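User: Modeling request: complex.
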Amino acid sequence: DVKVTQSSRYLVKRTGEKVFLECVQDMDHENMFWYRQDPGLGLRLIYFSYDVKMKEKGDIPEGYSVSREKKERFSLILESASTNQTSMYLCASSLQIEAFFGQGTRLTVV
Amino acid sequence: SQQGEEDPQALSIQEGENATMNCSYKTSINNLQWYRQNSGRGLVHLILIRSNEREKHSGRLRVTLDTSKKSSSLLITASRAADTASYFCATDPNTGNQFYFGTGTSLTVIP
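Assistant: Request completed. Predicted assembly structure:
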């Protein structure tokens, strides 16, 4: 069965902390994505990656960076967390067309 | 932004009725997909329609695509309480590998 696993369901961090959100997929997919989801705004693409060590900016990359050192793992990094980054973060992977999602990480920055 | 939009934002119907939600998008696409999200969870793929198709069925789901109007609709027939969820359309523009999701329709089916 297809699996995308995000390291935490809930996370509380302080303003200014460096935050790592981890995502692992076991399907050997080339493409991986990070979205944030906010009420009324839907899913917005932060970054995506189509290969190891490759990354592309999405619509809202400011304040975020990513790392893809291995095919199965795609990390989202908040360099200095701010309260406006409080959100639900969703990771997804795909081979070509259909995207498979993790369960989401609800991050609160206080 | 290449994000699409769903309409309506929220929909409330009685069990057994049909639910229709619409999606508009901005760029030329290869495919359009519909996903479902139960409260607080990740998204699950429902159905895909390719840009050269006009209509597709899967069980109680019917999807239409009008590329000239850059719009799609999702019809759920004979709705059930378990259909209560948010529904999102997603497009993959023919310029890359990424997906862009709409803002979602929140469907409530009242038993």
